[in-house]
């Protein structure tokens, strides 16, 4: 279980705990901080048990401390939870009124106490079988919000119950025991076989048996899936960090995205009939939203399709102007991001066709979208996404090419033009340029404010480069349209302020150079990131450092430049001694609002 939690730690790591059944009792071990603090718990070394639940936390309600760590216990019930119970306050008031006491500030302890309360009430009034299942169903029907629960009962210590709504949960099966986990990477070294639970289904799990019930308490047969990932893929395999490993996996991952498209290996591309759509709404969060900005650029500039990009947490609460000829594209590496899932559901309710671009196979968004195209980047463990982002950009490239083909738009963007045969070598050469990135990182590592500026698609790259730097090095940075800086924000530029300018677009290059000079005239330390085609025109009067990356097609430029920006962020974070794979305050998959 500790090993499984270690594989899941990237999802949240501010405290951890396990509960195990031992000699008929359920014992609890919890520690604040990273999982290592729990693993070092001496008393754990002597535990002998074959049934337990564990949790590594990303705090939503209540500060990260031992009391708020999961599992939580109330009466007969011990429980771990991923999600948010939104009506926990009213449930807590109801339970307090019944004399229930609480130790923590968490919504999870309220859920635990409520299930226990319902179970105790049912025990007093009924002596039917399946009371635990009934109690769980009844309690969950009163919960508002999201949950994936692992539940143990004191009076049945060698059984685990599991149920979910909106948060991810899988049930792993093996000859040596059975498992529940938020995602398959937790248990890959024990089994590749797993089932996916749907809403209001409950799994009853023991060492030898797994029974799944629907909300009528009828047993149901669930499809058994075979994981496509291997346990090795979820290990660092000699790299210092998962992030560096995943950056180095990009050359092959991108080539595979193009290969699947050009060699017609993914029939889902043809399920998207672009002639049916008058406009495209792309919705995502974080880096997936930045990849979506590149998608918009490609759809509009090459396929002539009006396209908007919305941040999912905004989209879900704004007025929807969807029509049956709107294609809504949801982009998500994990396929479990709560805001993106909500955006998908709203779009479907409003009658739009939904297309999902997803990495995690079988994830909730992938299962609920009308059409899903997988990026197949493989497991991405580092919280800061790299190959997850670049494979999303490459997938947008394939969709744009497909749209052009379907709309008979003449394009030179085909297998040759996309440099299909060279893209892995190009990216490998970009990654090998590490000394250049270290030189830039050395200058950035002790600064407090950094600007990324660019125009057109270059600005989209700035957005992703700035986020990478912020989330792993903790240096504040801002991406700004190069032409916009002088409308106010340039007032922040001081002597030595780093300004990283991305200029790869021919028709915008000179404009961006002018903007760089404007910042340099005010003391900025300017770093130009461009491509070899501009090297001859470069004069040293405007950039303190100039980096010229391989020239490639517009479809690939965002991938090439962002790969360099990923490594600049990585080297800067390393110089600052940051926890690169598990940055403070973050979690890999934000399955709560
Ligand atoms: C990116 O490095 C971050 N980890 C974060 O912005 C992430 O892209 C965002 O949370 C969306 O995640 P998703 O792709 O799994 O939906």
Task: Give a structural overview.
By secondary structure, this protein is α/β, with parallel strands linked by helices. The protein has 3 domains: 2-232, Glutamine Phosphoribosylpyrophosphate, subunit 1, domain 1 (4-Layer Sandwich), CATH 3.60.20.10; 236-421, Rossmann fold; 432-593, Rossmann fold (3-Layer(aba) Sandwich). α14 runs parallel beside α18 (554-575). The chain has 18 helices and 24 strands. A 7-stranded antiparallel beta sheet has the order 4-5-6-7-11-12-13. Strands 16-15-17-18-19 form a 5-stranded parallel beta sheet, with helices on both faces. A 5-stranded parallel beta sheet has the order 21-20-22-23-24, with helices on both faces. It is globular and about 85 Å long. Residues 285-288, 332-334, 337, 340, 383-385, 471, 589-590 line the site of 2-deoxy-2-amino glucitol-6-phosphate.
């Amino acid at each position: 279980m500790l090993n499984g939690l270690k594989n899941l730690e990237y999802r949240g790591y501010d405290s951890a705990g396990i509960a195990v059944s031992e000699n008929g009792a359920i014992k609890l071990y919890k520690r604040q901080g990273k999982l290592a603090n729990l693993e070092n718990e001496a008393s754990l070394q002597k535990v002998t048990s074959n049934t337990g639940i564990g949790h590594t936390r990303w705090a939503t309600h209540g500060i990260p401390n031992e009391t708020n760590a999961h599992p939580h216990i109330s009466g007969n019930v011990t429980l771990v939870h991923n999600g948010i119970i939104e009506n926990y306050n009213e449930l807590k008031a109801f339970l307090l009124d019944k004399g229930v006491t609480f130790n923590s500030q968490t919504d999870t302890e309220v859920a635990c106490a409520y299930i226990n309360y319902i179970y105790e009430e049912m025990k007093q009034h009924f002596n039917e079988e399946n009371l635990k299942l009934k109690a769980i169903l009844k309690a969950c029907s009163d919960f508002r919000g999201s949950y994936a629960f692992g539940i143990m009962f004191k009076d049945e210590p060698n059984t685990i119950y599991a149920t979910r709504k909106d948060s991810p949960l899988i049930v792993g099966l093996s000859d040596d025991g059975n498992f529940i986990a938020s995602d398959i990477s937790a248990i890959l070294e024990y089994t590749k076989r797993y089932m996916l639970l749907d809403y209001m289904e409950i799994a009853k799990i023991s060492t030898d048996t797994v029974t799944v019930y629907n909300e009528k308490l009828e047993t149901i047969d669930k499809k058994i899936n075979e994981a496509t990932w291997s346990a090795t893929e979820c290990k660092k395999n000699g790299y210092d960090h998962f992030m560096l490993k995943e950056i180095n996996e990009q050359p092959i991952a991108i080539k595979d995205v193009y290969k699947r498209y050009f060699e017609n290996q993914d029939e889902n591309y043809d399920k998207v009939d672009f002639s049916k759509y008058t406009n495209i709404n792309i919705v995502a969060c974080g880096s997936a939203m930045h990849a979506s900005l590149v998608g918009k650029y490609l759809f509009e500039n090459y396929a002539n399709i009006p396209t908007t990009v919305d941040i999912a947490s905004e989209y879900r609460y704004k007025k929807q102007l969807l029509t049956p000829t709107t294609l809504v594209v949801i982009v998500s590496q994990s396929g479990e991001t709560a805001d993106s899932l909500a955006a998908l559901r709203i779009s479907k309710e409003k009658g739009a066709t939904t297309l999902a671009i997803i990495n995690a196979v079988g994830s909730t968004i992938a299962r609920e979208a009308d059409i899903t195209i997988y990026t197949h980047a493989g497991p991405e463990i580092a919280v800061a996404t790299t190959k997850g982002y670049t494979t999303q950009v490459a997938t947008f490239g394939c969709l744009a090419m497909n749209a052009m083909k379907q709309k008979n738009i003449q394009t030179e963007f085909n297998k040759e033009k996309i440099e299909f045969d060279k893209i892995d070598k190009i990216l490998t050469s970009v990654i090998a340029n590490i000394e250049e990135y270290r030189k830039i990182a050395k200058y950035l590592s002790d600064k407090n404010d950094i600007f990324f500026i660019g125009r057109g698609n270059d600005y989209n790259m700035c957005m992703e480069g700035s986020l990478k730097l912020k989330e792993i090095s903790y240096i504040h940075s801002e991406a700004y349209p190069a032409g916009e800086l002088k409308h106010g924000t340039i007032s922040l530029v001081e002597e030595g302020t780093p300004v990283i300018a991305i200029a790869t677009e021919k028709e915008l290059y000179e404009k961006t150079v002018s903007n760089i000079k404007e910042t340099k005239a005010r003391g900025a330390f300017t770093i130009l990131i461009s491509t070899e085609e501009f090297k001859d025109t470069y004069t040293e009067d405007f950039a303190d450092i100039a980096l010229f990356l391989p020239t490639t097609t517009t479809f690939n430029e965002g991938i090439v430049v962002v790969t360099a920006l990923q490594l600049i962020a990585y080297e800067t974070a390393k110089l600052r001694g940051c926890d690169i794979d598990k940055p403070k305050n973050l979690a890999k998959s934000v399955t709560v609002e």
